[in-house]
Design brief:
Alpha-Beta Plaits, 3-stranded antiparallel β-sheet, globular, binds iron/sulfur cluster
Length: 110
């Protein structure tokens, strides 16, 4: 399984980190040298700029999460069992998974 995060859209809510049963995700400081160490395509890598619409939607939301301090990185995508828990919990709708048959699954916040 290939798993990656579209990082400009990641709010840093850590839902993915908290729900994944096989520890695919690590939360990293935006300035960490390995913040782009998953298989995200170039346009979805972190370059220091939040996605404007995601930022506007979540910047003032007080839900106990430390928004926009960290980014999620899929450090262990090979372990993914496609339980899809992260895909329905992702505030930024920015997790993408491709299985061995090349079927892509994208997160939709519910
Ligand atoms: S779909 Fe994969 S990455 Fe997402 S929570 Fe389940 S095992 Fe973890
Ligand atoms: S659930 Fe989505 S928005 Fe929240 S930290 Fe994970 S990838 Fe980022």
């Amino acid at each position: 399984m290939k798993v990656w995060v579209d990082k400009p859209k990641c709010t840093g809510c850590a839902h993915c980190h908290d729900v994944c049963p096989v520890a695919v995700f690590e939360m990293k400081d935006s300035n960490a040298p390995d913040v782009n160490s998953d298989v995200a395509p170039a346009e979805q890598q972190w370059k220091g700029q939040e996605d404007p619409s995601v930022y506007a939607k979540w910047k003032d939301v007080q839900d106990g999460h430390n928004h926009f301090k960290e980014k999620s990185v899929a450090v262990n995508g090979e372990a993914c069992i496609l339980c899809q828990a992260c895909l329905i919990e992702c505030e930024g709708e920015c997790i993408h998974i491709v299985d061995d048959n090349n079927t892509q699954y994208d997160s939709i916040y519910k």
